[in-house]
Amino acid sequence: MRKADSSSYLTDEESIRTRTALFHKYVYPYRNLIYHICIKQTRDNDNIADNYNEVLINFFRYVHSYDPTREVKTWIYAITVRMLADLERKNNRFAREGDVGAMKMEQLPDEPCSEDVTLENYRDMFGDEVLEALERIGRKYREALLLQVAGYKLEEIMEILYQRGCLKTKNLETTKSRIFLAKKKLKEMLTRDGKRKENE
């Protein structure tokens, strides 16, 4: 897959809407195929879910590079196998060098927290390095993610963001994209135990 010409393309609102539409048109219908390939191509079963998420993230990021004249299923298969090969090489290197690999942050789980996290009290819930990363990703991404962590449904998150002026229109796809990108940004900055990566 080709990289975007500009880093701003990854966070621009219009490009997010475009990539979201392309992702749901070309990639999402083949999510089961992608997961099946991940099962076959991943040596360690514990890495299957992480690899699957990484593959989807990369498809979302570069889906605009897909040429519609190509057979989409063939493209999906080829790109998935190639990305998994890269991920497996990285996982092997991580195992040798002691790197923690993909983030599995207990501080920011996919499921709602048992404690009541709110946009007002989240600074009391997380460590300094997580808070620093949350500040760096920006308000619109931070609030969308924190609302998900707090247990709100997607429609509720959209409504709250709209009421707070973080969304110009009530758009579920934009809301999903912000949560998706917030997790991706945090993953780039933090290890799986919520510590700042050394290169940050």
Automatic annotation (TrEMBL):
GO terms for biological process: DNA-templated transcription initiation. InterPro entries: RNA_pol_sigma-70-like (IPR039425), RNA_pol_sigma-70_dom (IPR014284), RNA_pol_sigma70_r2 (IPR007627), RNA_pol_sigma_r2 (IPR013325), WH-like_DNA-bd_sf (IPR036388). Signal peptide: none annotated. Residues 30-93 form the RNA polymerase sigma-70 region domain. Gene3D superfamilies: 1.10.1740.10, Winged helix-like DNA-binding domain superfamily/Winged helix DNA-binding domain. It comes from the Bacteria. Pfam families: Sigma70_r2 (PF04542). Keywords: DNA-binding, Sigma factor, Transcription, Transcription regulation. One of its GO terms (molecular function) is DNA binding. This is RNA polymerase sigma factor.
